[in-house]
Design brief:
This protein is an alpha/beta fold. The chain has a single domain, classed as 3-Layer(aba) Sandwich (Rossmann fold), CATH 3.40.50.150. About 35% of the residues lie in helices and about 20% in strands. It has seven helices and seven strands. The protein has a seven-stranded mixed β-sheet with strand order 3-2-1-4-5-7-6, sandwiched between helices. Helix 3 links the parallel strand 1 (about 50-55) and strand 2 (about 75-80).
C-alpha cells in the first residue's frame, strides 16, 4: 500500500481515527454534516427492499448505523476498506456484517457484485496528489466499482462553484466528471448539487431511471397540447 499514490489519503484518514476515535471527525468529517451525506447517499437507492449495498470505504461503519437507526432492514449491507485499523473497529462493532479488506485497483482483486455501491468521501480529499493524479485515481476506481455493480453507484467530490478552494481537497469540474462517466460508464447520471455542502454527489445508473417509452409519452403529450 505504501508505494501507491493514494496511500497518503488512507494514512490521513487513519490519522483522524487515532486522533478522534470512533466519531465523525474520526473518519474525516470535521463538521456536523456526516448525517446529511448519509441521507444523500441513501437517495441513490430506487428501492430499499431486498437489495444489496456495498459501502466502499466504510471506515467505522457509521453509514450502517444510519441505516439501522432507520430500520431499513431490506438493505443487505456489506463494507469494504483498505485500512486494517478501520476494519478492525467495524468488525468489532458489527460482527454480523461481511467486510472486505480489498484494494480493487490490484490486478487480481475482486468482490461480489452488489445492487448498489456508495463511495462517500473517497474523492473529496486529495492531500499531496495533483488534480490530474486524483482524477486518474477516481476514473480507475469508478471503472472497477462499476464492474461490481448491478443497478447504480454514488460518489461525491468537492464543487468548483465555491467562494474559495482548499488546496488539499479535490475540487473538480462537473463537465470533466460527466464526460468521463458518459464515455466509459453510463450516461444515466443524476447530479445532486442541491444540498448545503460545498460538494456534489453523482448517482450513476447502469439503466435509465425513466424509460424511453415514458419519455416518448411525455413528448407526445406536449405535442398534442
Amino acid at each position: 500500500m505504501t508505494d501507491k499514490p493514494y496511500a497518503s489519503i488512507v494514512a490521513a484518514w487513519e490519522g483522524c481515527l487515532r486522533l478522534y476515535g470512533d466519531s465523525a471527525p474520526g473518519v474525516g468529517w470535521l463538521r456536523n454534516d456526516a448525517e446529511l451525506r448519509y441521507r444523500i447517499m441513501l437517495d441513490l437507492l430506487r428501492s430499499a427492499s431486498d437489495v444489496t449495498l456495498l459501502d466502499f470505504g466504510c471506515g467505522a461503519s457509521h453509514f450502517y448505523e444510519f441505516i439501522r437507526q432507520r430500520r431499513l432492514n431490506g438493505i443487505g449491507y456489506s463494507g469494504l476498506d483498505v485500512s486494517p485499523s478501520f476494519l478492525e473497529l467495524s468488525r468489532r462493532k458489527f460482527p454480523e456484517v461481511t467486510y472486505y479488506q480489498v484494494d480493487l485497483l490490484d490486478d487480481d482483486a475482486t468482490v461480489p457484485v452488489f445492487d448498489y455501491v456508495v463511495m462517500n468521501g473517497i474523492f473529496t480529499y486529495r492531500g499531496r496528489l495533483s488534480d490530474d493524479q486524483m482524477f486518474d485515481y477516481m476514473c480507475r476506481l469508478v471503472r472497477r466499482v462499476a464492474s461490481r455493480t448491478r443497478v447504480g453507484l454514488a460518489f461525491n467530490a468537492m464543487s468548483m462553484h465555491v467562494d474559495s478552494q482548499r488546496a488539499d481537497l479535490f475540487h473538480v469540474s462537473l463537465d470533466r466528471v460527466l464526460g468521463f462517466l458518459s464515455r466509459e460508464i453510463s450516461r444515466h447520471v443524476v447530479v445532486r448539487h442541491d444540498y448545503s455542502l460545498y460538494e456534489f454527489t453523482v448517482y450513476v445508473y447502469l439503466e435509465p431511471t425513466i424509460g424511453a417509452g415514458t419519455a416518448k409519452r411525455l413528448v407526445d403529450c406536449v405535442a398534442k397540447a
